[in-house]
Amino acid sequence: MNDILPIILSIVAALAIIGGLIPVLLKTRKNITQYPDTRDANDPEIRSGGSTLVADGSAAVTDRKVPAGVDVEDLDTATVPDDAAGLEVIPVETPLPVEGRLMRLRERLIRSNNIMGKGLLALLSSDRIDENVWDEVEETLLLADLGTEPTMQLVDALRERVKVLGTRTPEEVKKLLREELIKLVDPTMDRSLNVQRHADKPAVVMVVGVNGVGKTTTVGKLARVLVAEDKDVLLGAADTFRAAAAEQLATWGQRVGVPTVKSDIDGADPASVAYEAVKAGIDQEVDVVMIDTAGRLQNKVGLMDELGKVKRVVEKLAEVDEVLLVLDATTGQNGLNQARVFAEVVNITGIVLTKLDGTAKGGIVVAIQKSLGVPVKLIGLGEGADDLAPFEAEGFVDALLN
Description:
This protein is an alpha/beta fold.
């Protein structure tokens, strides 16, 4: 009997320990539940792959999978302390209002190294405007990447108006140049972002472009703009080819307090992640879902086809309201070539022109719009979080001429 008693006590102690662990294990399981695979198994374009929704929360930011139908607000984001989770706490920031951002960007553009406006003003203020001066005007416009057809259009209009004016004061020259440049930039184009929530679904925005133009950063900055306009936003990290893209996007989301859907699998199917993001946006009843895509090389047919697939798969759930093409203004005419290729694959609805403060080639705005019939909707003029703003034709021209 004395030999059996220690064994019985050991069994009782073990059962007590196991009993105490069961609730902990169940609670942990709750926090790492995989998304149920809600996709049609017979649909060849939608492949399975685990997704994570990074929830915003002031107490803690945890990286956990969210079951379909569970509201982000219902998650216990404080369950795992930040030090235990090993995750950095990223404080939620308050984005600048759009009005203040526009003023600062305009000032930055005025200070930028543009040769277009200042060069034209100097030439047209000459005492005598002969053919040599007109040749220089033409060369200045071409160097500013205005493009051949818009350049000839502007030169012809200026020739006619200068001939009629006769004697020209600097004020008259600036006035006529402003008027003709505004006509070229075309203030009649609709530059509004189509980001109004539908009756039962969010607006969906896809952001596309080649490597290195700043797509992920643009998505993050645009999220800040939308949050400043009191919109509920959800981000989808469909750039699964670049190593740190999903984490970079999630960090942007955490900075402004919006959730990000990303894959746990390296090289996961981008269309699957985009699909999950839109589904989560529908479930959470957000206003806008923004999808970041991989940096497609325009000469890689397979990758461009993949981009078309992402759009098709998303449209199984909701209409894509905006496809924004991000272009680096410093690439000049090469950016125009990129735009044409992307326009063949997806229906581009607007251009985001980044690094406009780092180039003398402001004419690319006109060239892209003339070539594609698509407006420049947003411009970036710096690396700061709030250095993105709506494009204004008159404000842009005034900045060039000041």
